Amino acid sequence: STLFPYTTLFRSGYQTPWLSDQVLCGSRGRGMGLTGFAIRLKPQISGRYDCIYTGKFVSGSTVGPLTDGELCRSNVPDDPLEAVELQVVERSVSQSKAPDQETHPLT
């Protein structure tokens, strides 16, 4: 979406530039799994909201929540990304909650 620039990380270590405006990134049929990502908000809304996200990986690890452009990737090398959870929270609400940035196994 236009308000959510993002970047992705491939198994090869290549990180895409920050993309937005509904530009797709990925390997589409080339068998190159994504191993990380980051999401941030465009400046026109970043003063009012926080972008909070978590990544779930094939190894079973969950990384996050992370915020505003921090790279999300597993501690396991070449661990393919399986799912992304994204929240956009008004800053007055989110400031009272400090994000936990530990890696946790899925339960």
Explain this structure.
This protein is mainly β and about 110 residues long. Helix content is about 5%, strand content about 40%. It is built from 2 helices and 7 strands. A 4-stranded antiparallel beta sheet has the order 6-3-4-7. A hairpin with a 3-residue loop joins strand 3 and strand 4 (about 60-65). The longest helix has 4 residues, at about 45. The N and C termini lie far apart (about 30 Å). The model is unreliable at about 95-105 (pLDDT under 50).
What is shown here, in short?
This protein has helices at 43-46, 91-94, and strands at 6-10, 34-39, 49-57, 61-67, 72-73, 81-90, 103-105.
Strand count, sense and closure of the main sheet? 4 strands, antiparallel
- Overall 3D form: globular
Give the neighbour order of strands across the main sheet: 6-3-4-7
Low-confidence stretches: 96-107
Strand content: 35-45%
**Structural class assignment:** mainly beta
SSE ordering: EEHEEEEHE
What is the residue-mean pLDDT, rounded to a whole number?
A: 80
Fraction of residues in helix: under 10%
Radius of gyration, CA atoms, in whole angstroms:
14 Å
Helices, by number, come to 2
Total strand segments: 7
Distance between the termini: 31 Å
Any descriptors?
107 residues, mainly beta, four-stranded antiparallel beta sheet, three-stranded antiparallel beta sheet, 2 helices, 7% helix, globular
Summarize the SSE layout with pairings.
Blueprint: E1 6-10, E2 34-39, H1 43-46, E3 49-57, E4 61-67, E5 72-73, E6 81-90, H2 91-94, E7 103-105
Antiparallel strand pairs: 1-2, 2-5, 3-4, 3-6, 4-7
